[in-house]
Task: structure prediction
Amino acid sequence: MDTQIIVNRFYDKLLSPAVKERSERLILTIAIVSYIIHLVLVILVNLELIQIDSKLFKNPIAAIYTPFSFILLYEVYLLVFFLPKSITTYIGKQYEIIMLIVIRRIFKDIANLELDSDWFQSTYDLQFTYDVATSLILFVLIFLFYQRNAQKEYLPEGLSAESVKKITRFINLKKAVAVVLLPIFVLLAVYTLSRWISETLMDYKNGILAFENINNIFFDEFFTVLIIIDVLLLLFSFFYSDEFHKIIRNSGFVISTMLIKISFSEKGLVNNALIIGAVLFGYLILLIHNMYEKQEKPS
Result:
């Protein structure tokens, strides 16, 4: 049986619009249930019926942290879903994921707020301020990124049969990558969850600490995998096009993903600056790329 037929079958089973719609309903259901469970645990902790040594279980607002975690997983699915359709939309989904991570962190920050006169002396209060400002900036940058992406790019008429063949091969390649990528992310999520459960059972305090730093547990490895995939797509794109501005655009997107990955190893203002810098760099790369496309369009 032809390899592409097998890839298309798996693609239809895992990444079709119908599967996407079912996955959305499932994730939203899980998110709502997890939110209710977290709220119940908060109430039990406040009533001193159970004991959990974490601020995430003392403030009801912090309960939003849990459903956001599942919404983030759905965004990961959407990232893979859009990979074969558009490289720029695929990159945009990466930016949406890092923004949602920042927003989820805000809900955790709220649980740690000290609300005293020495606002700028408190590490937690400062981090809350950084995250709120970062989320606003990212929201604007992502809007601008998609706005540029929505602009009609120039596609020359009368493409040769060989050019059409190359484009089709590249799309089929991205489908194959998406089919492989989805189970990798599922296995990664299962592994990180099982590792946290194991750590919690063996050492309760370290398990709770790992839960509070869950951003670094899954998404650090997640963006490492994305860098590998982005580099592979960059290399394979040379078979599709040797145009300078497209090569630079794809290379710039790889650099943007790397900056996001590096941000997980930093804390405080440096972390926020790297995240904003990554998205800003990606937006400017796309902006300049579109200027090249416009310049090459015949009058």
